[in-house]
Design a protein that fits this description.
By secondary structure, the protein is of the alpha+beta class. 37% of the residues lie in helices and 20% in strands.
Amino acid sequence: MSDLDDFDRRILRELTRDGRMSNTDLAARIGLSPSACLRRVQELERSGVIRGYRAVLEPSKLGIGFVAYVSVGLSLHTKAAQQAFEQAVAGAREVRECHNITGTVEYLLRVEAADLAAYKHFHTDVLGTVPGVASLTTYVVIESSKDERG
């Protein structure tokens, strides 16, 4: 569904800000009747433009005080090596995102841990033991001035 019109874009913008907004409030904000708005939202869901709704969590309330991005280079550049790596990190609770990327490394991970000591344990005892990992570079997040992940 690449032919989104202005109303669709406004619906998506509002739902991104508040996915729990009532249909009546959403319709009023974008200037449609509630029934027309609901049909559009249902079509956006049906077509897969809206994949789901999530709660936005406060990391500090969950004991997460350390966030880093980790670039991972593999020693082999094969599909099997990539699948093995993805399977290894799929079960790691610290890995919140895993992206296969282009460039000098194969993966970029978003990692969340309680603190630096917990991250060191993850880095050494989890990532450091995955077969085929050739390089790890950690980029510690100091502050996030913009974060629109839901």
